[in-house]
Amino acid sequence: MTRPLAWRRAQLGQLALMLRAEADQLTTALAEDMGKPEIEAWLTDVAAVRKDIEGIERRLDNWTAPRHVRVPWTLRPGRAQVVPEPLGAVLVIGPWNYPVRCLVLPMAFALAAGNTVAVKPSELAPATAELLAKLLPSYLDPRAVVVVPGGPDVAQDLLAQRWDHVFFTGGGRVGRLVLAAAAPHLTPVTLELGGKNPAIVDHSADVDVAARRLVWGKFLNAGQTCVAPDYVMVDRRAEGPLLAAMVKQVNKMFSDDPRTSGSYGRVVNEAHMARLAGLLAATKGRIVTGGTSLPADRYLAPTVVADVSWDDALMEDEIFGPILPVVSYGSVDEALAHVNAGDKPLALYLYCEDSDLVERVVAETSSGGVCVNHNAVQLAVPGLPFGGVGASGMGAYHGRAGFDTFSHAKAVLRRPQRGEVPLMYPPYGRLKRWVLKKVV
Ligand code: NAD
Fold first, then answer.
1. Distance, CA 167 to ligand 1 centroid (Å)?
2. Are 368 and 394 contacting, i.e. CB atoms less than 8 angstroms apart?
3. Ligand 1 binding pocket includes 320 (Cβ within 6 Å)
4. Is the CB of residue 120 below 6 angstroms from any atom belonging to ligand 1?
5. Which residue among 22, 192, 239, 318 is the active-site one?
6. Strand partners, 323
7. What are the structural domain ranges in the chain?
């Protein structure tokens, strides 16, 4: 039932339709869950996802077509193909920070690949979870798609079942539990995790451009973005101008009172507010802008902290909130050594005008992806695989990688009944052995 291309196309069309027709309801739910500004929610969690789904529809014929592979002459005549087949029943577990995108997009790829899908939205974005639980079954084929709302217990119950693939987006702690739960069934797992994404600002960078892009990337969704720059490492020569430019940009984007800005979001809940306040209390750095919070409103000002040392509290774990520490370095070797000493990040950012340095950073570091002279936008290039490496995750999606993640690449070799030189069959007399050794 889920295999015919017409069925897959119909599901993708319905998903795109849902994102168009229900955009207002979705952005309202996102605002309720984490105060996402309407246009930001629409762009990142609704419209961009719809565009990606429309891209999947356009490429479906190409991705599903069997791919021909060259047959070595020793096995000719023959025809070899890679035939993508659905994996079966897949489970998608989503996070709260982009609760539509991180649930609906993996689901779209799973359906495009011909699977049935169960999705579990995050309980920490309850308005969105409830809305998706209502909308998805009404737009999609209810025989092939099920939404299972709930928290960790529900996720564990689901993980105890046998799935053909589990696609998880969230933090590394739960990612480990997901991997362990999948192991008894030998279920393949994709882990889309997070981590501390470094942004290196070289002295050759245009600091105004870097500041504008960093401030945007960091404070989007109040810093609760997996590909946000977690911290900045800046060449000492550019430190002063960069800090000044960032303060200016914060003011420009969110006014001198970001609490009243319609363009600034909120921290998701009290627990995360308390965690972030704890980080600010513990840092030995100097707050150059922000720092104020209003827990009742789950508001934490866009905050930039300078003079941060490598062993500061802000440099331990993924910050996942609107706090941007800035560490200065004397030589880029120091910055690269720091990156290479830690977990492999989901994204690495580099601001510079020096193409040799770009090549060096790409060659000498490992991360899910690299974006030069911008941040976060790499995931908007549909053809680029999106995923982590090492502690930032395993597997990838977006574009062809998304289709491949939810497909098995089946190897098929077709040989005719007649027409072969019977060299491979025993008995191996002297002549056959001589010929085999000569020709193979
Ligand atoms: P999380 O790991 O706390 O939760 C994710 C999902 O796991 C939720 O649906 C939750 O209900 C479920 N869960 C929680 N405890 C569980 C348990 N014990 N067993 C099974 N399931 C359980 O993550 P989060 O707080 O929702 O999201 C934030 C993290 O996600 C950050 O680290 C961020 O970087 C990362 N993230 C990554 C991406 C990406 O695409 N790589 C995107 C968004 C967020």
1. 11
2. no
3. yes
4. yes
5. 192
6. 303
7. 5-193+388-412, 198-380
Superfamily for the 5-193+388-412 domain: Aldehyde Dehydrogenase; Chain A, domain 1 (3.40.605.10)
The Å distance, Cα 94 to ligand 1 centre, comes to: 6
**Alpha carbon nearest to ligand 1 atom 37, residue:** 193
Token pair 């109040």: residue: 222
What average pLDDT does the structure give for the chain?
Answer: 97
Total residue count of the chain as it appears in this document = 440
**pLDDT tens digits, residue range 381-435?**
999 999 999 999 999 999 999 999 999 999 999 999 988 878 889 999 999 999 9
Ligand 1 nearest-atom number relative to CA 226: 34
Which residues does 45 contact at the CB level (< 8 Å), separation at least 6? 26, 27, 30, 36, 98, 99, 100, 101
Q: Give the orientation angle of helix 332-341 with respect to helix 355-364, to 10 degrees.
A: 20
- The one catalytic residue in 226, 318, 352, 371 is 226
Q: In the annotation, is 40 catalytic?
A: no
**Cα–Cα separations (whole angstroms), residue 33 to 96, 124, 130, 154, 319:** 9, 8, 11, 20, 20
Reported pTM: 0.97
- For residue 388, which atom of ligand 1 is closest to its CA? 41
**Which of 351, 253, 262 has the alpha carbon at shortest distance from 304?**
253
What would the two tokens of residue 230 be? 């977690």
Count CB neighbours of 119 within 10 A: 25
Pocket test for ligand 1, best of 52, 124, 148, 174 (most atoms within 8 A of CB): 174
97 lines ligand 1 (CB under 6 A): yes
In angstroms, what CA-CA distances link 267 with 32, 223, 253, 424?
12, 8, 18, 68
Q: Which CATH class is domain 198-380?
A: alpha beta
